[in-house]
């Protein structure tokens, strides 16, 4: 009889210990002390004195490891004290993503209303949104793919370069008037839901006139290249932030250009590759602005 009672007590004790261990494991999973639970994404917006349409975004620092910002063109890794320029009049939604311990993230958004376009930083690109047939007509084909194997299509306020691979490529361009010794910046939204191999997407701002069927190589400014380490996987954002191709003039990754004389230059985008993404590479909101 005593042995039976002892056996039952031992079973109860084992069940109690097992349940206690299971509960402890559950608590460890649900309450990981390495993941922050109170990341604050709040920030302030302060106009920068003496600089038109320029703002300082200041994120509160407590519990934040780094910041991501989105001005409506896609998120980019930024600083906790980030200076931004909004040259064109309009209403902008600024979204801050605060990243804390354990990759915990929260977001916060505010609006900025820009009353006037900055005349010194107006966009010199015509039809850079591809919104209408008139916009699309501002661009000329470089005719690098006579068979039409590689081609650009227009839809949804954007342009997309398609290629079957095998080194087929195509380009589009337009002429822009520039002023001697003035600095300009070039930028655009670029995206693709899948990656490529042995592929390039390059932006040029050269003085030489593009010739049909001739690969343009005058003054490469920026771009994507699987050889340089980007476009291998899906991507989306401003080319200035996600590109990895070096600027011919500076030898660094930079979207700044300057010219030794005033006159006409050609903004040209060409892309292609050996194993090109099946989805194509899409561009929108192309800009060429005085710095």
TrEMBL record:
**Top-rank taxon:** Bacteria
InterPro entries noted in UniProt: Ig-like_fold, PKD_dom, PKD_dom_sf
**PKD domain residues:** 68-114
Asked whether the UniProt record includes Signal among its keywords, one would answer: yes
Keywords from the named record: Signal
Kindly give the Gene3D superfamilies that the UniProt entry links to this protein.
Answer: Immunoglobulins
User: Is Ribonucleoprotein included in the keywords of this UniProt record?
Assistant: no
Signal sequence segment: 1-26
The protein in question is named: PKD domain-containing protein
**What is the scientific name of the source organism?**
Flavobacterium anhuiense
At the highest ranks, the source species' classification is: Bacteria, Pseudomonadati, Bacteroidota, Flavobacteriia, Flavobacteriales
